[in-house]
Amino acid sequence: MTDFCFDIKPLFPEAIIKVSSDLLPQNFSGKRFMCADVTLKMAEVIDRMGQLSATAQDLINPVTTAQRLEKSDNQTVYLMADGKEGANGVVVGLLKVGTKDLYLYDETGQVHKVQRAPAVLDFYVHESRQRCGLGKELFEAMLAEEKWTPSKLSVDRPSQKLILFMARHYGLVRTIPQANHFVLYEGYFHGVSPSMPLLQATKSVPAILAAGSERQRTSAMTFHVGEANYRKRRLQDPQQQSCSTTDLLSSRCNSDCSMAEIIQGSRARGTNASHAADGQISRTNVRHT
Ligand code: ACO
Question: Given this structure, which CATH class describes domain 2-185?
Protein backbone atom coordinates (compact mmCIF):
# COMPACT_ATOMS: atom_id res chain seq x y z
CA MET A 1 0.00 0.00 0.00
CA THR A 2 1.26 3.48 -0.74
CA ASP A 3 1.46 5.42 2.48
CA PHE A 4 3.21 8.68 3.17
CA CYS A 5 4.80 10.36 6.16
CA PHE A 6 2.00 12.93 6.10
CA ASP A 7 -1.76 12.63 6.44
CA ILE A 8 -3.16 12.33 2.91
CA LYS A 9 -6.78 12.92 3.94
CA PRO A 10 -6.70 16.72 3.52
CA LEU A 11 -5.59 16.13 -0.10
CA PHE A 12 -8.54 13.84 -0.70
CA PRO A 13 -11.86 15.49 0.09
CA GLU A 14 -13.28 12.55 -1.89
CA ALA A 15 -11.94 9.06 -2.54
CA ILE A 16 -11.17 10.00 -6.14
CA ILE A 17 -9.68 13.38 -6.94
CA LYS A 18 -8.79 15.08 -10.19
CA VAL A 19 -5.51 16.96 -10.41
CA SER A 20 -4.29 19.18 -13.23
CA SER A 21 -1.26 21.35 -13.80
CA ASP A 22 -1.74 23.42 -10.64
CA LEU A 23 -1.18 20.22 -8.59
CA LEU A 24 -4.22 21.02 -6.46
CA PRO A 25 -7.28 18.80 -6.10
CA GLN A 26 -10.10 20.07 -8.32
CA ASN A 27 -12.31 22.51 -6.39
CA PHE A 28 -9.65 22.92 -3.70
CA SER A 29 -11.13 25.34 -1.21
CA GLY A 30 -8.27 25.77 1.27
CA LYS A 31 -6.74 29.08 2.12
CA ARG A 32 -4.05 30.53 -0.12
CA PHE A 33 -1.25 29.88 2.40
CA MET A 34 -2.17 26.18 2.37
CA CYS A 35 -1.66 25.84 -1.38
CA ALA A 36 2.13 25.59 -1.26
CA ASP A 37 1.98 22.79 1.29
CA VAL A 38 -0.73 20.93 -0.62
CA THR A 39 1.09 21.15 -3.97
CA LEU A 40 4.32 19.89 -2.38
CA LYS A 41 2.53 16.90 -0.91
CA MET A 42 0.57 16.29 -4.10
CA ALA A 43 3.81 16.32 -6.08
CA GLU A 44 5.21 13.66 -3.76
CA VAL A 45 2.07 11.51 -4.16
CA ILE A 46 2.12 11.81 -7.96
CA ASP A 47 5.83 11.10 -8.24
CA ARG A 48 5.59 8.02 -6.02
CA MET A 49 2.53 6.62 -7.77
CA GLY A 50 4.08 7.37 -11.17
CA GLN A 51 7.21 5.50 -10.16
CA LEU A 52 5.23 2.51 -8.90
CA SER A 53 3.29 2.45 -12.16
CA ALA A 54 6.53 2.51 -14.15
CA THR A 55 7.93 -0.35 -12.10
CA ALA A 56 4.73 -2.36 -12.57
CA GLN A 57 4.96 -1.85 -16.34
CA ASP A 58 8.71 -2.36 -16.50
CA LEU A 59 9.21 1.09 -17.97
CA ILE A 60 12.63 2.68 -17.87
CA ASN A 61 11.21 6.05 -16.84
CA PRO A 62 7.89 7.01 -15.24
CA VAL A 63 5.20 8.30 -17.58
CA THR A 64 3.68 10.36 -14.80
CA THR A 65 5.62 12.88 -12.79
CA ALA A 66 4.50 16.03 -11.02
CA GLN A 67 6.91 18.07 -13.10
CA ARG A 68 5.48 16.75 -16.38
CA LEU A 69 1.91 17.39 -15.17
CA GLU A 70 2.81 20.92 -14.12
CA LYS A 71 4.13 21.67 -17.58
CA SER A 72 1.14 20.25 -19.43
CA ASP A 73 -2.07 22.07 -20.23
CA ASN A 74 -3.93 19.05 -21.57
CA GLN A 75 -3.27 16.27 -19.07
CA THR A 76 -5.16 15.23 -15.98
CA VAL A 77 -4.30 12.79 -13.23
CA TYR A 78 -7.00 10.99 -11.28
CA LEU A 79 -5.91 9.64 -7.90
CA MET A 80 -7.75 7.23 -5.67
CA ALA A 81 -7.22 6.94 -1.91
CA ASP A 82 -8.42 4.86 0.98
CA GLY A 83 -8.59 7.26 3.90
CA LYS A 84 -9.54 4.53 6.35
CA GLU A 85 -6.33 2.53 5.99
CA GLY A 86 -3.72 3.33 8.66
CA ALA A 87 -3.40 6.61 10.49
CA ASN A 88 -2.61 8.71 7.43
CA GLY A 89 -4.65 6.90 4.79
CA VAL A 90 -3.15 5.34 1.65
CA VAL A 91 -3.18 6.11 -2.05
CA VAL A 92 -4.29 3.11 -4.11
CA GLY A 93 -4.54 4.18 -7.74
CA LEU A 94 -3.51 6.59 -10.48
CA LEU A 95 -4.94 7.23 -13.92
CA LYS A 96 -3.47 9.80 -16.27
CA VAL A 97 -5.39 10.91 -19.34
CA GLY A 98 -4.95 13.67 -21.84
CA THR A 99 -5.53 14.73 -25.39
CA LYS A 100 -3.12 14.21 -28.25
CA ASP A 101 -2.99 15.37 -31.83
CA LEU A 102 -2.52 12.12 -33.69
CA TYR A 103 -2.47 10.70 -37.19
CA LEU A 104 -4.76 7.67 -36.98
CA TYR A 105 -5.95 4.98 -39.38
CA ASP A 106 -9.61 4.12 -39.68
CA GLU A 107 -10.94 0.63 -40.45
CA THR A 108 -10.51 1.18 -44.19
CA GLY A 109 -6.87 2.19 -43.89
CA GLN A 110 -7.41 5.91 -44.43
CA VAL A 111 -5.32 8.24 -42.32
CA HIS A 112 -6.95 11.04 -40.36
CA LYS A 113 -5.38 13.80 -38.41
CA VAL A 114 -7.37 13.70 -35.18
CA GLN A 115 -6.92 16.71 -33.00
CA ARG A 116 -7.21 16.45 -29.25
CA ALA A 117 -7.83 12.70 -29.38
CA PRO A 118 -8.76 11.47 -25.88
CA ALA A 119 -5.96 9.22 -24.68
CA VAL A 120 -5.27 6.93 -21.73
CA LEU A 121 -1.64 7.58 -20.85
CA ASP A 122 -0.94 5.84 -17.54
CA PHE A 123 -2.97 3.61 -15.27
CA TYR A 124 -2.01 1.89 -12.05
CA VAL A 125 -3.69 0.26 -9.07
CA HIS A 126 -1.53 -0.88 -6.18
CA GLU A 127 -0.67 -4.57 -6.42
CA SER A 128 -2.39 -5.34 -3.10
CA ARG A 129 -5.69 -3.95 -4.43
CA GLN A 130 -5.73 -5.16 -8.03
CA ARG A 131 -8.66 -7.20 -9.35
CA CYS A 132 -11.00 -5.83 -6.69
CA GLY A 133 -12.84 -3.44 -8.97
CA LEU A 134 -10.91 -0.28 -8.02
CA GLY A 135 -9.48 0.15 -11.51
CA LYS A 136 -12.98 0.07 -12.98
CA GLU A 137 -14.18 2.57 -10.36
CA LEU A 138 -11.33 4.94 -11.17
CA PHE A 139 -11.79 4.52 -14.92
CA GLU A 140 -15.55 5.12 -14.67
CA ALA A 141 -14.99 8.27 -12.63
CA MET A 142 -12.65 9.52 -15.35
CA LEU A 143 -15.13 8.68 -18.13
CA ALA A 144 -17.94 10.50 -16.32
CA GLU A 145 -15.82 13.56 -15.61
CA GLU A 146 -14.31 13.82 -19.10
CA LYS A 147 -17.57 12.73 -20.80
CA TRP A 148 -15.67 10.15 -22.83
CA THR A 149 -16.73 6.68 -23.93
CA PRO A 150 -14.33 3.72 -23.87
CA SER A 151 -14.48 2.92 -27.59
CA LYS A 152 -13.47 6.50 -28.43
CA LEU A 153 -10.24 6.33 -26.45
CA SER A 154 -6.77 5.86 -27.79
CA VAL A 155 -4.63 3.88 -25.37
CA ASP A 156 -0.91 4.49 -25.16
CA ARG A 157 0.78 1.11 -25.55
CA PRO A 158 -1.48 -0.85 -23.21
CA SER A 159 0.02 -3.50 -20.98
CA GLN A 160 -1.25 -7.07 -20.89
CA LYS A 161 -3.35 -6.27 -17.81
CA LEU A 162 -4.91 -3.21 -19.44
CA ILE A 163 -5.75 -5.20 -22.58
CA LEU A 164 -7.55 -7.71 -20.37
CA PHE A 165 -9.18 -4.89 -18.39
CA MET A 166 -10.60 -3.26 -21.54
CA ALA A 167 -11.89 -6.60 -22.78
CA ARG A 168 -13.36 -7.59 -19.42
CA HIS A 169 -15.16 -4.37 -18.57
CA TYR A 170 -15.95 -2.84 -21.96
CA GLY A 171 -15.91 -5.81 -24.35
CA LEU A 172 -13.20 -4.06 -26.36
CA VAL A 173 -11.05 -6.60 -28.17
CA ARG A 174 -10.86 -5.82 -31.86
CA THR A 175 -8.43 -3.07 -32.71
CA ILE A 176 -7.69 -0.83 -35.67
CA PRO A 177 -4.02 -1.25 -36.62
CA GLN A 178 -1.95 1.89 -36.21
CA ALA A 179 1.57 2.82 -37.19
CA ASN A 180 2.28 4.23 -33.76
CA HIS A 181 2.07 2.80 -30.25
CA PHE A 182 -1.48 3.95 -29.65
CA VAL A 183 -4.19 1.32 -29.73
CA LEU A 184 -7.66 2.14 -31.04
CA TYR A 185 -10.63 -0.12 -30.77
CA GLU A 186 -13.20 -0.79 -33.45
CA GLY A 187 -15.94 1.81 -33.24
CA TYR A 188 -13.50 4.63 -32.69
CA PHE A 189 -14.50 6.34 -35.92
CA HIS A 190 -18.20 5.45 -35.79
CA GLY A 191 -20.50 8.42 -35.72
CA VAL A 192 -17.78 11.03 -35.90
CA SER A 193 -16.33 12.86 -38.82
CA PRO A 194 -12.66 13.48 -38.14
CA SER A 195 -10.49 15.40 -40.59
CA MET A 196 -10.60 14.59 -44.28
CA PRO A 197 -8.59 11.44 -45.00
CA LEU A 198 -4.98 12.28 -45.73
CA LEU A 199 -4.07 9.03 -47.44
CA GLN A 200 -6.20 6.66 -49.50
CA ALA A 201 -5.92 2.94 -48.84
CA THR A 202 -4.74 1.80 -52.22
CA LYS A 203 -1.97 -0.42 -50.83
CA SER A 204 -1.77 -3.30 -48.41
CA VAL A 205 -2.12 -2.52 -44.72
CA PRO A 206 1.60 -3.19 -44.04
CA ALA A 207 2.51 -0.73 -46.81
CA ILE A 208 0.10 1.84 -45.43
CA LEU A 209 1.48 1.32 -41.97
CA ALA A 210 5.00 1.82 -43.29
CA ALA A 211 3.91 5.07 -44.93
CA GLY A 212 2.11 6.09 -41.78
CA SER A 213 5.15 5.31 -39.72
CA GLU A 214 7.01 8.02 -41.59
CA ARG A 215 4.11 10.40 -41.19
CA GLN A 216 3.80 9.56 -37.52
CA ARG A 217 7.46 10.32 -36.96
CA THR A 218 6.81 13.78 -38.37
CA SER A 219 3.69 14.22 -36.28
CA ALA A 220 5.50 12.99 -33.18
CA MET A 221 8.07 15.70 -33.73
CA THR A 222 5.29 18.21 -34.28
CA PHE A 223 3.00 17.27 -31.45
CA HIS A 224 5.05 15.58 -28.78
CA VAL A 225 8.12 17.74 -28.42
CA GLY A 226 9.80 17.09 -25.10
CA GLU A 227 8.19 13.70 -24.53
CA ALA A 228 10.52 11.54 -26.60
CA ASN A 229 11.33 8.09 -25.24
CA TYR A 230 9.42 8.48 -22.00
CA ARG A 231 7.55 5.21 -22.40
CA LYS A 232 10.43 2.92 -23.20
CA ARG A 233 10.08 -0.55 -21.76
CA ARG A 234 13.03 -2.59 -20.68
CA LEU A 235 13.96 -5.24 -23.22
CA GLN A 236 13.43 -8.75 -21.99
CA ASP A 237 14.61 -12.24 -22.81
CA PRO A 238 13.69 -12.83 -26.49
CA GLN A 239 12.83 -16.46 -25.61
CA GLN A 240 9.87 -15.16 -23.60
CA GLN A 241 8.73 -12.53 -26.04
CA SER A 242 6.07 -14.21 -28.10
CA CYS A 243 2.41 -14.83 -27.34
CA SER A 244 -0.93 -14.19 -28.98
CA THR A 245 -3.90 -12.05 -27.95
CA THR A 246 -5.85 -15.26 -27.59
CA ASP A 247 -3.28 -16.24 -24.98
CA LEU A 248 -3.63 -12.85 -23.34
CA LEU A 249 -7.38 -13.06 -23.16
CA SER A 250 -7.19 -16.50 -21.60
CA SER A 251 -4.43 -15.22 -19.24
CA ARG A 252 -1.93 -17.78 -20.52
CA CYS A 253 0.74 -15.29 -21.52
CA ASN A 254 3.12 -14.37 -18.71
CA SER A 255 5.31 -11.94 -20.59
CA ASP A 256 4.40 -8.26 -20.39
CA CYS A 257 3.34 -7.42 -23.93
CA SER A 258 1.09 -4.90 -25.57
CA MET A 259 -1.51 -4.74 -28.32
CA ALA A 260 0.74 -2.28 -30.13
CA GLU A 261 3.43 -4.95 -30.13
CA ILE A 262 0.96 -7.46 -31.48
CA ILE A 263 0.23 -5.09 -34.33
CA GLN A 264 3.92 -4.44 -34.77
CA GLY A 265 4.47 -8.21 -34.92
CA SER A 266 1.84 -8.50 -37.62
CA ARG A 267 3.57 -5.79 -39.61
CA ALA A 268 6.84 -7.66 -39.37
CA ARG A 269 5.20 -10.74 -40.83
CA GLY A 270 3.56 -8.63 -43.53
CA THR A 271 0.09 -9.86 -42.69
CA ASN A 272 -3.15 -7.97 -42.43
CA ALA A 273 -3.53 -7.27 -38.76
CA SER A 274 -7.06 -5.96 -38.86
CA HIS A 275 -7.99 -8.54 -36.30
CA ALA A 276 -5.10 -8.49 -33.91
CA ALA A 277 -6.17 -11.68 -32.17
CA ASP A 278 -3.95 -13.66 -34.49
CA GLY A 279 -0.94 -11.35 -34.22
CA GLN A 280 2.41 -12.36 -32.82
CA ILE A 281 4.21 -10.05 -30.45
CA SER A 282 7.61 -8.56 -31.11
CA ARG A 283 9.34 -7.46 -27.93
CA THR A 284 11.87 -5.48 -29.92
CA ASN A 285 9.31 -2.69 -30.23
CA VAL A 286 9.84 -0.04 -27.59
CA ARG A 287 7.68 2.98 -26.98
CA HIS A 288 8.67 6.33 -28.45
CA THR A 289 6.08 9.00 -27.69
N1 ACO B 1 -4.04 -10.67 -14.48
C2 ACO B 1 -4.97 -10.73 -15.43
N3 ACO B 1 -5.92 -9.77 -15.61
C4 ACO B 1 -5.89 -8.69 -14.82
C5 ACO B 1 -4.93 -8.57 -13.79
C6 ACO B 1 -3.99 -9.61 -13.63
N7 ACO B 1 -3.05 -9.60 -12.69
N8 ACO B 1 -5.16 -7.41 -13.17
C9 ACO B 1 -6.21 -6.82 -13.77
N10 ACO B 1 -6.66 -7.60 -14.77
C11 ACO B 1 -7.81 -7.31 -15.66
C12 ACO B 1 -8.75 -8.49 -15.74
O13 ACO B 1 -9.53 -8.36 -16.88
C14 ACO B 1 -9.58 -8.31 -14.51
O15 ACO B 1 -10.81 -8.99 -14.55
P16 ACO B 1 -10.93 -10.44 -13.85
O17 ACO B 1 -10.36 -10.29 -12.49
O18 ACO B 1 -12.40 -10.74 -13.86
O19 ACO B 1 -10.12 -11.36 -14.70
C20 ACO B 1 -9.79 -6.83 -14.50
O21 ACO B 1 -8.60 -6.25 -15.07
C22 ACO B 1 -9.98 -6.34 -13.09
O23 ACO B 1 -10.58 -5.08 -13.12
P24 ACO B 1 -10.37 -4.10 -11.90
O25 ACO B 1 -10.29 -4.83 -10.62
O26 ACO B 1 -11.38 -3.03 -12.01
O27 ACO B 1 -8.94 -3.47 -12.29
P28 ACO B 1 -7.65 -3.28 -11.37
O29 ACO B 1 -8.01 -2.60 -10.10
O30 ACO B 1 -6.90 -4.54 -11.27
O31 ACO B 1 -6.82 -2.22 -12.26
C32 ACO B 1 -4.99 -2.11 -13.82
C33 ACO B 1 -6.44 -2.55 -13.59
C34 ACO B 1 -4.88 -0.61 -13.58
C35 ACO B 1 -4.60 -2.42 -15.26
C36 ACO B 1 -4.08 -2.86 -12.81
O37 ACO B 1 -4.17 -4.23 -13.07
C38 ACO B 1 -2.63 -2.43 -12.81
O39 ACO B 1 -2.26 -1.46 -12.17
N40 ACO B 1 -1.76 -3.17 -13.53
C41 ACO B 1 -0.31 -2.91 -13.51
C42 ACO B 1 0.05 -1.66 -14.26
C43 ACO B 1 -0.46 -1.67 -15.68
O44 ACO B 1 -0.28 -2.63 -16.41
N45 ACO B 1 -1.09 -0.54 -16.08
C46 ACO B 1 -1.54 -0.31 -17.45
C47 ACO B 1 -0.38 0.21 -18.25
S48 ACO B 1 -0.70 0.70 -19.92
C49 ACO B 1 -1.26 2.31 -19.80
O50 ACO B 1 -1.29 2.86 -18.74
C51 ACO B 1 -1.68 3.05 -21.05
Answer: alpha beta
